[in-house]
Amino acid sequence: MPTDLFEYKFINSQVVNSTFLHNKEGCQLDFSDDNNAYMIYFVSFLGTLAVLPGNIVSALLMDKIGRLRMLAGSSVMSCVSCFFLSFGNSESAMIALLCLFGGVSIASWNALDVLTVELYPSDKSGKHYGQVTCEGCKSFFKRSVRRNLAYSCRGGRDCPVDQPHRNQCQYCRLRKCLRVGMRREAVQRGRMAQGPPSPGQCPAVPGDPYGGRGCLSSFISVLLRAEPYPPARYGARALQPGVVVGIESICELAARLLFGAVEWAKGIVPFFPELPLSDQVALLRLGWSELFVLNAAQAALPVHAAPVLAAAGLHAAPVAADRAVAFMDHVRLFQEQVERLRVLQADAAEFACLKAVALFSPGVNGCEGNEWEQAQVALQEHVRRRHPAQRGRFGRLLLRLPALRSVPAPGIQQLFFSRLVGETPIETLIRDMLLAGAGLGWP
Questions:
Q1: N or C: where does the chain have the smaller number of CB atoms within 10 Å of the terminal CB?
Q2: Are residues 334 and 217 in the same domain?
Q3: HSE (CB half, 13 Å, CA atoms) of 164?
Q4: Each residue of 20-50: b (16+ CB within 10 Å) or e?
Q5: Same domain, 269 and 414
Q6: Residue 14 resides in a domain
Q7: What is the pTM of this model?
Q8: How many domains in the chain?
């Protein structure tokens, strides 16, 4: 109930100063000066602004030093800043400590948030970047791809990647994400279709030499991107109307196809380059002749000139009659296999899968056969989508590979590469190319 003095309540009232319980020099708030009011807002602004460098530092260093180290370091610095903040005796020092606390505390929260998601993922999972994964692997894969992070393995590149151990080795974790089919390009696009497209949803893009890459699997996309120069263009150049194909041109084209096969294998990231060098050499030593025959069929190598080329080679270096007959049989086998592959009219994706099956032989030490199986699955799915009416096409394509082994590698070397390397084995040339690690300059 108002009194007679109510209207005089705020007359001649003024707050002179306000101090802490224990008087400290420099820690007073005096509202008699208008500048101190602006100082309060300025300090609040600095504390908010300090969050920005904390976010930047946590984003740059979290993957380099680790989540646990980031969490521990930022937590310790937060405690230290709080400790000195309680004993501060100057405005500038307290403002600096306040900003430091804001920056390191947000870095600590970021590290804690990442650890919580990865160590205790939600039971809810969905299709992320092409595969059904948990939220932890989704965030790890997205962060690794967007920042283009490169990891290293301290073990033998075979670390266990399961829920209890998946944070121990980021290299093997990213490797497994790619192996199961998570797509890098899906991260860049930000979204992708949730289900496999029907055959009618995969039209070939006009002018696309790969016949519509948009509906290809991630594994086939990796194989196609690894091509240093599409082999089909070599054949188009060699078979132009009015162009006379000579022996030297055929040998040059054959050399390009061989070198292209090696460069293609080196470009199958991360599947081939992550193998030890000895395994890479072993795979190419076993499969270079099959890769060459497949490239020859795809590039439309003029096999009709093979007998002429063989005759020229025999004329330059005469051999015994029985060896000459055996050599001509090898030439005939080579012609037959190339022609049978051409009859199938395989597209670039089918050739890429066949070459991957021929390359990743499960018999080589260190090769588990995962890529070999993945190439067959990708080929089967591609044939089902692109040629739904040809139910036996997958089997016909796959059965071409055992027949390719009937073409002896020494016969191919003698036919096409004797003028290039002489008596030097092709296997030695392949090893030198892998050791050099230099790319070729393609026209």
A1: N
A2: yes
A3: 0
A4: eeeeeeeeeeeeeeeeeeeeeeeeeeeeeeb
A5: yes
A6: no
A7: 0.54
A8: 3
Contacts with 10 (C-beta within 8 Å, 6 or more apart), sequence order: none
What are the pLDDT digits (tens) for 89-120? 677 777 777 777 777 777 776 777 666 655 55
User: Does some domain include residue 197?
Assistant: no
Q: Do 151 and 229 sit in the same domain of this protein? A: no
User: Distance (Å, rounded) from C-alpha 400 to C-alpha 343?
Assistant: 11
Between CA 415 and CA 307 the distance in angstroms is 9
pLDDT tens figures, 288-332 = 999 999 998 988 877 666 665 555 555 455 556 666 677 778 788
Q: Do 140 and 49 sit in the same domain of this protein?
A: no
Are 309 and 347 in the same domain?
yes
Q: Are residues 271 and 292 in the same domain?
A: yes
- C-beta atoms surrounding 253 within 10 Å: 23
pLDDT per position as a tens digit, 51-92:
777 777 776 776 667 667 777 777 777 777 777 777 766 777
Quick one: pLDDT at residue 383?
A: 92
Q: How far is CA 207 from CA 204, 212, 229, 409, in A?
A: 9, 9, 16, 35
Q: What is the DSSP code (8-state) at residue 203?
A: P
Q: Environment class of residue 412 by beta-carbon count within 10 Å: exposed (0-12), middle (13-18) or buried (19+)?
A: buried
Place of tokens 């594994």: 219
Q: Tell me whether residue 195 is in a domain.
A: no
Q: Are residues 182 and 251 in the same domain?
A: no
Instruction: Judge if 146 and 273 occupy the same domain.
Output: no
